[in-house]
Amino acid sequence: MNLHSQSQMVRDFLAMTQVGVRVRLFEEPTLLGSAGTLRANRAWVESESSFWVFYADILTTTNLTGMADFHQRHQGVATLGVCRVPDPTRSGSVIEQFVEKPENPPGNLAFGGILLARSELLEIVPEEGPADLSRDVIPRLVNRMFAFPITDYHLDIGTLESYRAAQTDWPGLAISTATAP
Questions:
Q1: pLDDT in tens, 6-49
Q2: Prediction pTM value
Q3: Which helix (H) or strand (E) holds 36?
Q4: Does an H or E element contain 173, and which?
Q5: Region 71-92: what's the mean pLDDT?
Q6: CA distance 150 to 55
Q7: Positive or negative CA dihedral for 39, 52, 80, 83?
Q8: CA end-to-end span of the chain, whole Å?
Q9: In Å, what is the CA distance from 167 to each residue of 59, 87, 159, 163, 178?
Q10: d(CA 95, CA 113)
């Protein structure tokens, strides 16, 4: 888990919570960008046959097993989770190429902030400075990656408006309130 803002709150939460999985924390005093973080943690993931990248502002019920199976069958350098969005100017548009936040998007299919990649992706990450997956890496993977359609609940909660919407729309609410004492 990559930490920057409010890192002590995350550490405190994890210390008092039994999450059932091992969590490795990496703190970035200076932001490196989504690809820069991969570069800094390269030794941790490069020996894996594939590794996941999840953007922290995504709330989803995406079928990750289905996506992993798709990735394994297609053998691309990366598999991007893609979904239809109401405002494609706020997202990386997926067409026959990848364009980050286009002014005049050709459609409404967007990168959903979930990526499954092979270690070859690490070779494309710029060696120095902050680097972003959407701007500096994904466009260089055209014809070497695949798109997995996300049809389950999927919401970018990176704005206050969408975060508030998730407070009533999240499918997990029905489960948590049904099992609450």
A1: 999 999 999 998 878 888 899 999 999 999 999 999 999 999 99
A2: 0.83
A3: helix 34-40
A4: helix 172-179
A5: 87
A6: 15
A7: negative
A8: 31
A9: 11, 20, 13, 7, 16
A10: 16
